Amino acid sequence: MLSDLIVFALFLIVLLVLAWPLGKYLAKVSSFEKTIFDPLLRPVEKFIYRLCAINSEQEMTWKQYTVALLIFNILGGLAVFLIEILQGSLPWNPQNLPGVNPWHLAFNTAISFMTNTNWQSYSPETTMSYFTQMAALTVQNFKSAATGLAVAVALIRGLTRKTTSTIGNFWVDLVRGVLWVLLPLAIVFTLLLVQQGAIQNLSPYLTVHTLDGATQNIAQGPTASQEAIKMLGTNGGGFFNANSAHPFENPTPLTNFLQVLSIFLIPAALVLAFGHMANARQQGYAVLATMVLLFALMLAGTYLSELAGNPILAGMGVNSPTAMEGKEVRFGIGGSALFATVTTAASCGAVNSMHDSFTPLGGFFPLLQIKLGEIIFGGVGAGFYGMMMFVILVMFIVGLMVGRSPEYLGKKIEARETKMATLAILIPSVFILAGSAIASVVEPGTAAIANPGPHGLTEIVYAFASAAGNNGSAFAGLNTNSLFYNLMLSLNMLVGRFGVIIPVLALAGSMAEKRISPPGLGTFPTTGWLFVTVLTGVILIVGALTFLPVLTLGPVVEELLMLQGTTF
Fold first, then answer.
1. Which residue blocks in 408-482 are alpha helix, DSSP H?
2. According to DSSP H, which parts of 31-61 are helical?
3. Cα separations in angstroms, 360 against 176, 302, 332
4. Average pLDDT for 240-246
5. SS3 412
6. Which residues pair with 209 in a beta bridge?
7. Which residue in 72, 127, 326, 358 has its CB near the most CB atoms, within 10 A?
8. pLDDT for 396-434, tens place per residue?
9. How far is residue 369's CA from residue 296's CA, in Å, rounded to a whole number?
10. Average pLDDT estimate for 529-553
């Protein structure tokens, strides 16, 4: 246990140390200040603008920004869908895999990677060719992460600018996000993974003979490059079905540490970049402190639950009280709990253990994190703008309590901004609960359950939460490759992504038009521990009021029954 605690502490220390310079760098990139990569990348950037006929000097209103974003993502999703369908006729397919079938699986996958969810209702080794993995899925990992980053930067401009109707240029923010941020980090991380043993090739699968005479096919492929961006872009989606429990994706304890670190790196740095761009670093510190506090609470809950284990298994003599069921033995309970907490906090979806095999409360905390929204670090960009919606809500509540108009960064928060923040928070929650309710009562929904009782309900709820929360991880006990689940989860992914982004951009546009007033005697401070405590409390209360009933019927009931020795 002591060694696990040391790893947890080291993780947070290294994260904050690396996030500090990256935050300053992100602020420079977003503010068009000079960086060390400018001599190399500026010519490439200008060439892209000329090739695509983009006027990089022309800024956009929030409506123009939104339209450009939606068009870009729709076309990206269509490209992924067509590549999947046609992959049997495309190159770099040494296993001669046919086009992805049925069509609704290809559609679900295209929506999944377009929305930064990376939910997978298929086994990658037997479904996706190398070309599809690289040209469709890996490319979309860059694009979806850059989209989230662009929205976050637009929101920062909206919060910090005054009396203007524009929030930037989507195409410029997208290009700079890929070239200056995601691509350099991905190249470095890819090389680190290859050095540690992750594979990167275009070789056909290997056929080998085991010691007992059986024949086994060992999958190959350009794994390290996709692994790097899936983590840095908080995408998730494994090159192999076992995801980061596979030694080709996650070879060593060092790569396991680097992977969880890379998931949080950009989201943490972006909060610090907000402080730099707002010329108020303590604003960024307060938001980051809230994220760290919530993460620590969730990690403690997950780790302690898994450390206690399953008493039923312990009583049968098939497992120790510290159950290793579902865990990767190379990383142990600490490495598995840390990975599970990070990936569900950051809407990444990559896993190095099976959440379906966690204890009921061990699965409760990852599920709760997804349901709270992309706020505990969250996805690239999405974590920041998700948390800022709660900040707006908190300032509105505080304003009601003290009897004065709420404000943030010197700008008045009025009815329009409050409505947009409320919509961004509630829309995914409504679709999580509605989708789960429908799936729990119709035959196509219940037929997919692998486990009876409350665990089966949790499997359904987790799937819809993962989709609407753009997370992509799964409880793995639910057969979702059906027309019903592929379409229902696709709808949830779309709403969970763009049902949040559109209100966020509307709020950014509204805030950009406002004047900045100096703080007065009654202004509620947003930089101290009082603000951090109130923000944390509001997040947990909103989450409890929204999801406590279904969490009680699922993980909580299952935990109580497990302690009584009840099995299903």
1. 415-441, 443-446, 454-468
2. 38-51
3. 43, 10, 18
4. 89
5. strand
6. 215
7. 358
8. 988 888 777 788 988 899 899 999 999 999 999 999 999
9. 12
10. 90
Give residue for tokens 């919509």. 423
**345: its two tokens:** 């906090």
Give the mean pLDDT of the chain: 91
pLDDT-derived band of residue 2, with 50, 70 and 90 as boundaries? confident
Element (DSSP H or E) covering residue 11 = helix 2-30
Closest by CA position to 62, among listed 148, 165, 138: 165
Tokens of 210: 């085991």
Mean pLDDT, rounded, for 497-505: 96
Cis peptide before 21 (omega within 30 of 0): no
Question: What region, left, alpha or beta, does residue 128 occupy, with left being phi > 0 and alpha being psi -120 to 50 degrees?
Answer: beta
> What CA–CA distances, in Å, run from 455 to 115, 150, 356, 467, 557?
28, 38, 9, 18, 9
Q: Give the residue from 79, 262, 89 showing the smallest Cα distance to 185.
A: 262
Q: How do residues 64-106 score in pLDDT, each as one tens digit?
A: 999 999 999 999 999 999 999 999 999 999 999 999 999 999 9
Two tokens, residue 436: 């789960």
Contacts for 399 with CB less than 8 Å, ≥ 6 apart: 405, 406, 407, 413, 524
Q: Find out whether 390 and 538 touch, Cβ atoms under 8 Å.
A: yes
266/253 Cα distance (integer angstroms): 22
Other Cβ atoms within 10 Å of 333 Cβ, number: 20
End-to-end CA distance of the chain: 31
